[in-house]
Each structure stands twice: as C-alpha cells, then as structure tokens.
Amino acid sequence: MITQLKELRSHKGFIALVSARFISNLGNGLSPIALAYGVLSIPGADGKDLSLVMAARFVPMVALMLFGGVVGDRYKRNRVVGGADIIGSVFVGSGWALLIDAISFLIAGILVWNLDLPEMPEREENSVIHDLRIGWHEFISRPWVIAIVCSFAIINMCFEAIWQVLGPLAYDQGDSGPRNWSFNLAAVTLGMIFGSVIALKIKLKRPLVTSMILIAASSVWNFAIASTQPLALVMVCGFVSGLAIDIFMVQWNTAMQTHIPEESFSRVAAYDAFGSFGIAPIGVAFAGPAAAYFGITPTLWATGILTFIAALASLSVKSLRALK
Question: What pTM was computed for the model?
C-alpha cells in the first residue's frame, strides 16, 4: 500500500486534491449534526419540521445536476468543482458549525480551482439539450449502470432519511443525543476510511457484485438503530456500513472511469447522480411524518429492509454480474 500511495503522490496535484476533499468533508461532518439538533431545539419543532428543512437542502443539488454534467464536459472540471465550492461558501447559515462548513468549502474550492489540469479537448458547439441527449444515450446503453442507479435511488433515499432525520430523532433524548449521534457518524466515517484502504489493496474479480452484496450487508446499521442496541454495538454496525459504502464507491467510480468515454463522462455521471439522488429528498421529506405516524423504530426497519432488497435486486442484471 505504501508503494501505491507513493505512486499516487507522484501525480501532480494529488496532494492538493486530497487536502481539498479532507477539508471540505471536515466541514460537512459538522453541519448535519448542528443543523439537525438546531432545528429540534426550536420550541415546538418535531420530526416533520426537521424533514422539511433537510429536504430543502437537496432541492438545488438535484435541480442543477444535469446542467452540471454538461458544464463539466465543456470546461475544466477542477474549475467547475472549485468554483461551485467557492460560491457555496458564500451561503452561510447561523452558528459556528455552519460557519466552519462554509470556510472549509472556500478553502477546498480554492485548492481545487488551482489544480494544474490540461485543457478540455476541443468539441463541437452544441446546445445544452443536444449534449444532454448524447449523455442520455451513453447512459441508457449500459444496463449495469441503469441497474446500479435504480438500486441506489432506493438505497440513497433510505440512507439520507437516516442520516438527515431518523438518526437524529432516534438519539434525540436528553443532552447526550447529539453526542451519541455524532459518535455514530464518526464510526461510519472511520469505516469509510478503512474501506478506502481495503479497496486500495485488493482487486475484486467481480467488483460490482461484491460491492452490492456489501451494500446489502450495510443495512445492519439501520437494524441496529431500530432495535435500540447499545451505543457501542450500533457504532460497530455503523463502521461496517461505512466500510461497505466506500468499497462500493471505489469500485463504482473505477468502473465508470474505465467504461465511460471521457468526452461524455460528466454527463453520464450527472445522470447517475440525478437518478441515484433524485428521490432522496422525498425520503427525507417523508421520514419525519412517517416516524410520527408509524413510529421511529418501524420506519428504521423499513429503510433497512428496502436497502437490503434494492442492493440484491441489482444482481439480477447479467452485465453487472459479468463486469470485471
């Protein structure tokens, strides 16, 4: 692994990119906890209010995904990402945690903006609709991509419902609630780090098959929270979930980079993101009302069952099973 890291370090801009992502994610780690318990601390606020606030955060992201894919295939991608981070840093909410998040976006944006990447190759001047049509053709021509996106439409809806609403509600008990939920998120994050290390060291024969089985297993975190297990055990399950998520992300991004043409990659990735997260705001918006009507525990069980079924259902697609 040390040799591989040295090879990565030799790539110009690698350290700056890693630093930017670390700084940005550090800020992102603070904001969900601060915002969730900030909303719940308002007199009279409940899970329904939390759902509305958290769902509203997704609307601009989902609305601009496809347009972002077109822009990413026309201009230098580091400038697109860096510029978006810098602009995003301007929209600061109240509270020190959200301020830190904004500052982290600004620093990360500047680092990414200044990466020395080659210019995008010259291409025909087409309309946005024309470019989206080409990207759509590349997207739908690969059944394994469609299978993953359809599965993750359900999986992300459930995951974001837990991350944004159901988790904070489950731990909204006394002064220790924010601390215990932050321990959960820290365990998931630690699992992601270990997942990246494992993905760096091993080469899977059937990367997407193995990854989706792991994603199915990641539902153990949902079930652990639903069954009110001791905090330490829930954190272990959160670690397993994070491990599975990052192993999948590495394998998925590798598959996309390997099999999608460079000239249309951003547009295909945009359709991937739009399909995978398009209904996530619906899950977030309904999580609070569902928890109020059915109870937090049954709603958490439902998210785990849906995640498990959606992940394994993707394995029915032959091209996904055959991808190496």
Answer: 0.81
